[in-house]
C-alpha cells in the first residue's frame, strides 16, 4: 500500500491539505507538524512520497527536506517564496518538484501532483539515447518521479525492448542515434503502439531546426530541446503522462457499468467478437438472470434493487476472478468461463448457484436470500449472437423449470443437454 507523508506547520494549510487529500488521494497519509514529528514517523514508516513545507519552526533551513531525501523518499516541496538561490538549493538537494503556496489553487496543484506521481509508481519508462551521460541524467529524474526505468543505446535496441515489453508506457527518445534515429523509431513504434497507449517525448540538441514539429508529426506526443531545465523536463513528462492517464480513465469509464463497476454490454460484446475471431472453442458462455427481481424492487424500492445488483456483481467478481464478467442487461449478467466441457461448466455454475442461494444479501437493515437462473452454451459458433442465442435458450429452460437452476445447451444439436434443479 502506498503511503504519503505531509509535513506542514500551519494549522489552516494543513486543514486545506487534509481536505484536498481526502478528495484526491486514495492512499494512507500521515501528517506531521514539525521536524521532530517527521523524524519519529520516518523511523517507523516507509513512505512512497513526501510533500513537505520548506521551513518549519524547528527547521528553518530546509532540514526536513534533507531528512526525507536522506531516507530516499521522493520529495515535493511546498514553499511560500522562491528566489534563484532557494530554487538552486532545492534542485541540488534533489527534490522532485516545488510548489509555491500563494493561493488555494496551489494546494490543489500540490495534491494533484502527488496523485500523478503516485500513479507513476510501477509504470515503466524507456530512455533511448546513445549518450550514457544523458541517459544517466534522465534516469535520475524519472526515478524521482517514481518510474521504473529501462535504457536503450540506439533505436533498434529500443524497438526490440518495446516489442517485448508492452507495459512500457513512456518513451523518451533522442533524435540522433546509431542504427535507427529517433524519427524511424517513432514511426516504427506507432505501427503497433498508439498515442493513447504509449507516450513518446522526442529529444534533440539545440540548432536542429524543425525537429520538434517533425517528431510530433511522426507520432511523438511532445518534444524537449536539450539541454532542458529540470522543471521543464518534469512538467513535460507529467503533462504527457496525465494525458495518457486521462484517456485510460475515459476508456475505462466507457467500458464499465456505472452501477456495479463490471464491464458493460458494449465492452463485453467487443471482447467476445475479438475472442471468437481468434478462437475460444475451449470456453463456455453463461448468462445469469436474477429470479423474480421485480419483487425485490417492488418490496424494497429501486435503490434496494440497485444495492442487490451491486452485491451480485461483487459475488461474481470474487467467484470468477479469472473470467470476463459483465452486466449485460438490467438484472442479467454474463461470464465467459475457460472450460471446454459443458458438463463441467454446468457443474461450476451449479456450485455458484448454490452459493448464491445461500448468500445473505442485505438492503439496509433487511437480510434476504435471492436465487439465480443460468443458461450455458459452448463458444463453438463464429458469431456472438449465435452463442448468445443458445445460452439464452438454456436460460429460458432454467426459468421454465422453476428457476434457481443451471442448464447447459448442447449447441451442436441445438438441443438442451440436460436439466438441473436443486
Ligand atoms: N433496481 C433496479 N432494477 C432494475 C434495473 N434494471 C432492471 N431492473 C428491474 O428488473 C426487473 C426485471 O423484471 P422481470 O423481467 O419481470 O423479471 P423478474 O422479476 O426477475 O422475473 P424472472 O426473470 O422471470 O425470474 C424489472 O422490475 C426491472 O425494473 C436496475 O438497474 N436497477
TrEMBL record:
Gene3D superfamilies in the cross-refs? 3.30.70.270, 3.40.50.2300
List the source organism.
Pseudoalteromonas obscura
Q: Name one GO molecular function term.
A: diguanylate cyclase activity
A Pfam entry, by short name: GGDEF
Keywords for this protein: Nucleotidyltransferase, Phosphoprotein, Transferase
What is the protein name stated in its UniProt record? diguanylate cyclase
PTM sites of type 4-aspartylphosphate = 53, 174
Question: Where in this chain does the record put each Response regulatory domain?
Answer: 3-116, 124-241
Tell me the organism's taxonomic lineage.
Bacteria, Pseudomonadati, Pseudomonadota, Gammaproteobacteria, Alteromonadales
Catalysed reaction(s) here are: 2 GTP = 3',3'-c-di-GMP + 2 diphosphate
According to the entry, every stretch annotated as the GGDEF domain falls at: 281-411
Q: Does the keyword Transit peptide apply?
A: no
Question: Which EC number applies?
Answer: 2.7.7.65
Q: Which InterPro entries match?
A: CheY-like_superfamily, Diguanylate_Cyclase, GGDEF_dom, Nucleotide_cyclase, Rev_trsase/Diguanyl_cyclase, Sig_transdc_resp-reg_receiver
Amino acid at each position: 500500500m502506498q503511503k504519503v507523508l505531509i509535513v506542514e506547520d500551519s494549522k489552516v494549510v494543513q486543514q486545506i491539505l487534509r481536505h484536498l487529500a481526502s478528495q484526491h488521494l486514495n492512499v494512507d497519509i500521515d501528517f506531521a507538524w514539525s521536524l521532530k514529528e517527521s523524524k519519529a514517523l520516518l523511523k517507523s514508516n516507509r513512505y512512497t512520497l513526501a510533500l513537505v513545507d520548506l521551513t518549519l519552526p524547528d527547521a528553518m533551513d530546509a532540514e526536513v527536506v534533507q531528512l526525507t531525501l536522506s531516507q530516499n523518499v521522493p520529495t515535493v516541496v511546498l514553499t511560500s517564496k522562491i528566489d534563484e538561490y532557494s530554487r538552486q538549493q532545492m534542485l541540488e538537494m534533489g527534490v522532485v518538484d516545488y510548489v509555491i503556496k500563494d493561493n488555494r489553487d496551489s494546494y490543489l496543484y500540490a495534491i494533484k501532483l502527488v496523485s500523478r506521481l503516485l500513479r507513476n509508481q510501477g509504470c515503466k519508462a524507456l530512455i533511448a539515447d546513445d549518450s550514457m551521460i544523458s541517459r544517466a541524467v534522465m534516469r535520475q529524474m524519472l526515478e524521482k518521479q517514481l518510474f521504473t526505468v529501462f535504457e536503450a543505446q540506439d533505436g533498434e535496441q529500443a524497438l526490440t525492448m518495446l516489442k517485448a515489453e508492452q507495459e512500457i508506457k513512456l518513451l523518451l527518445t533522442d533524435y540522433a542515434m546509431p542504427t535507427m534515429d529517433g524519427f524511424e523509431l517513432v514511426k516504427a513504434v506507432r505501427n503497433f503502439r498508439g498515442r493513447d497507449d504509449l507516450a513518446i517525448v522526442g529529444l534533440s540538441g539545440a540548432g536542429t531546426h524543425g525537429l520538434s514539429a517533425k517528431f510530433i508529426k511522426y507520432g511523438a506526443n511532445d518534444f524537449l530541446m536539450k539541454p532542458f531545465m529540470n522543471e521543464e523536463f518534469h512538467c513535460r513528462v507529467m503533462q504527457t503522462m496525465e494525458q495518457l492517464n486521462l484517456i485510460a480513465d475515459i476508456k475505462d469509464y466507457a467500458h464499465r457499468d456505472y452501477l456495479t463497476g463490471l464491464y458493460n454490454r458494449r465492452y463485453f460484446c467487443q471482447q467476445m467478437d475479438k475472442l471468437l475471431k481468434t478462437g475460444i472453442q475451449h470456453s463456455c458462455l453463461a448468462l445469469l438472470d436474477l429470479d423474480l427481481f421485480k419483487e425485490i424492487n417492488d418490496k424494497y424500492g429501486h435503490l434496494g434493487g440497485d444495492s442487490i445488483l451491486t452485491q451480485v456483481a461483487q459475488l461474481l467478481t470474487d467467484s470468477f476472478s479469472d473470467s470476463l464478467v459483465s452486466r449485460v442487461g438490467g438484472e442479467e449478467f454474463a461470464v465467459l468461463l475457460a472450460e471446454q466441457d459443458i458438463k463441467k461448466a454446468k457443474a461450476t455454475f451449479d456450485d455458484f448457484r448454490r452459493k448464491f442461494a445461500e448468500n445473505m444479501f442485505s438492503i439496509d437493515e433487511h437480510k434476504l436470500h435471492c436465487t439465480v437462473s443460468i443458461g450455458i452454451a459452448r463458444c463453438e459458433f463464429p458469431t456472438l449472437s449465435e452463442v448468445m442465442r443458445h445460452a439464452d435458450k438454456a436460460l429460458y429452460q432454467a426459468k421454465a423449470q422453476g428457476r434457481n437452476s443451471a442448464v447447459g445447451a448442447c449447441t451442436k444439436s441445438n438441443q438442451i443437454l440436460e436439466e438441473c434443479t436443486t
